[in-house]
Amino acid sequence: xxxxxxxxxxxxxxxxxxxxxxxxxxxxxxxxxxxxxxxxxxxxxxxxxxxxxxxxxxxxxxxxxxxxxxxxxxxxxxxxxxxxxxxxxxxxxxxxxxxxxxxxxxxxxxxxxxxxxxxxxxxxxxxxxxxxxxxxxxxxxxxxxxxxxxxxxxxxxxxxxxxxxxxxxxxxxxxxxxxxxxxxxxxxxxxxxxxxxxxxxxxxxxxxxxxxxxxxxxxxxxxxxxxxxxxxxxxxxxxxxxxxxxxxxxxxxxxxxxxxxxxxxxxxxxxxxxxxxxxxxxxxxxxxxxxxxxxxxxxxxxxxxxxxxxxxxxxxxxxxxxxxxxxxxxxxxxxxxxxxxxxxxxxxxxxxxxxxxxxxxxxxxxxxxxxxxxxxxxxxxxxxxxxxxxxxxxxxxxxx
Length: 400
Ligand code: ADP
Fold this sequence. Notes:
Strand order of the largest sheet: 5-4-3-2-1-6-8-7
Bound molecules: adenosine-5'-diphosphate
Distance between the termini: 12 Å
Strand content: 15-25%
Number of strands: 14
Structural class: alpha/beta
Order of helices and strands: EEEEEHEEHHEHHHEEEHHHHHEHHHEEH
């Protein structure tokens, strides 16, 4: 069965979509509906070549109406007939899903049953599925979960040192996210090294606005830095990463924060943004630091120090290591942050090749280590392609 896959990625206030050839990852069209549920939501559509359109969506636009508008543009571009399956990114599959699945009633119920674990995402993911099913009722719809890749983690990695009943009775454990990205880049890394995934071990660092590390042994995730929610682990754009949990009652009892305000503080006002007081954007901070802004410099320093410490600790999980992989907006693009990280990793034998680091073009895959150093690969991630490939495979083998 040849054709394209419509990939739908519903965020809390946006819907990203792409029409992808699953066998090669070529993007036929893509776009994003942004600022949903606000006064000025709009839909940006990029067709093949130079076609570009921006359509206002009106103040009532939600995820459902955004998807119907997307489908309208897909029809105008005469791409609807080419679509053989719809792949949906779903954030939380809990312990119910260790891989992507064809969506049926039971799967919808399971996604709904995990809403409390991802209250900003699973409900809008369900809206997206419902709207896309309305538009394409005859096509197979496939769910690809952010959490699924990490279901192979052992108990030693996923349990918190809390009373066991909190896990067994209430599902309190580490789940991990960014699964499609870690799966993709570690698969690509094995290809680059000419090794079978089952014979290779990697540490993958996804460094975007959200950041996570994953230890992958023989093609399977054995540890990851995000936890019960995406808050845990590395310093991120606006998330604090690891903290002392006793900070929460201190903020509530002594500084008058409500639970909701604490949550916003940790998730939206912290990380690079909170430390710098300037921006969550690494580019802005790099420019400011170069101009002498000490808070911007401190934010970048803390980001790299925490990252290097985490990487060092993951050597325990993924040894002997075939390569450290850097991906996500920062990993793929920031010459400065990559150099800074490798300097911190020098005690582990890492040596940066400055020319390779500087000359690696944006969007290119390559290595940035010297010959005598453990390997460091930069690999652009491609979560949409993972979703498209899974959807096409499952549509071919399981539907009808
Ligand atoms: P998201 O998690 O939202 O998908 P991305 O993976 O696009 O985010 O990563 C966004 C981050 O990547 C931002 O901090 C941005 O500043 C950073 N970034 C993108 N391009 C560059 C660049 N050329 N140099 C430094 N940082 C960059």
